[in-house]
Amino acid sequence: MDTTEDKPKRRQLLNGDRTIWAMVFVLCAISLVEVFSASSRLTFGKSSFLTPIISHTLHLCIGLGGMWVVHLFHYKWYKLFPIFLVPMAVLLLGYLSLRGMGTSNAERWINLGFIQLQPSELGKIGVIMAVAYWLSKLKTDDELSQANTFWKILGLTGLVDALIVGENLSTAVLLAGVVYVMMILGGISWKRILALTGVVTAAGTVAILFLLFVPPQTLKELKFIPDRALTWQDRLLDYFHATDKPNAYEYAKYEAPQKPQETHANIAIATSNILGKGPGNSNERDYLQEASCDFIYAIIIEELGMVGGIFVILVYVVLLFRVGRIATRCKEKYPAYLAMGLGMLLGLQAFINMSVAVGLFPVTGQPLPLISKGGTSILMASGCVGMLLGISNTIDKEARGEQALGTGADIPTPVDGQESFDETK
């Protein structure tokens, strides 16, 4: 039987929102089972078939450990993160554009020996944290504050996106979308939001039409166009012309061999049924490229069926609802904006990955948070969840009259103190 002395100690192990902790452990459990099953292609040429899953388990353990450490600190310490995250990401992305080490024909990773570092993951989190801080200092009725905040956000996001877009278009679009919503929620004036919307919509339309109608050979010869533009063009053409296939026979004979990812993902889902084939019984994992990362959701549906696929969606939905609850409980602006930004980042990334797997979106390189194999993506997703739990932990402790780790005079304040989130400006 537990004593009264044992109960407080156990409660202190996992602080913050317990539902989020539960969802994290559920996602990690699914990840271990499905990545082990989907990693069969990665075992070829390895000394042991356990090598990929051992590496993945190690990344998950490190991620969970980092999540636990981060969640112990008062959220005001998180203001320091972008001070080194953003410059580091900019330098690494600049280096990558010059001497990137290609993987799957995309210069996205830098090999550090013990991990393949993806600088774009650092960049998008650093930008979101910086944007949350600037929005927390915004004075909505002050034109000078509006202008300064708007252009600072636009400048930083534009710089990081410009460095990311050549190697990972989907990440650049994802980051821009999250920052855009944060500006709306953060009180940026509607005239600036509408002006930005018009400019981005016009530029995006021109870029899509350009890729759809410029011949591939001409596109290849244009020196100012990124090398990945041909890949973007192929995926856009496939997506917009998906209904032009005359019949299944001709598609299977002529087009399917040219698009193995989409084809085998479709087969995996089409053969899944309600309850699936069972964990470890996937047939398409041996043919589907990036089965353990970009298309892990197709393998989940194949093995766990439509029930398993819907369950994973519900886990992310519950996670987002809890993030929304954390944001509404915040008495200060900074943690509320940070929670909303990080929550949208994880939610949109999950939505994009699952949409690609089921054929709703063109193929991208977005992993499924806390499920897909990949060291950098796991560590960054764990860091995001750790900060969300840290915000929740601080709120809970303040409500009980306690103090979070790092509370007091040692909390850094880069500028003047925080204003109340509920305060009318």
Number of strands: 3
What's the helical proportion of residues?
A: 55-70%
Mean pLDDT figure:
81
In total, how many domains does the architecture comprise? 1
User: In terms of per-residue confidence, which ranges show pLDDT below 50 for 5 or more consecutive residues?
Assistant: 1-10, 100-105, 415-425
**Cα-to-Cα separation, first versus last residue:** 53 Å
Order of helices and strands: HHHHEEEHHHHHHHHHHH
Can you walk through the features of this model?
The chain has 425 residues and is mainly alpha-helical. It has one domain (15-399). 64% of the residues lie in helices and 3% in strands. The protein has 15 helices and three strands. The protein has helices at 6-13, 18-38, 51-70, 81-99, 119-136, 143-165, 169-186, 190-213, 216-221, 229-240, 248-255, 260-270, 296-329, 333-357, 375-399; strands at 101-103, 106-111, 116-117. A three-stranded antiparallel beta sheet has the order 1-2-3, covered by helices on one side. A hairpin with a 2-residue loop joins strand 1 and strand 2 (106-111). Helix 4 (81-99) packs parallel to helix 6 (143-165), helix 7 (169-186) packs antiparallel against helix 14 (333-357) and helix 12 crosses helix 13. It is globular.
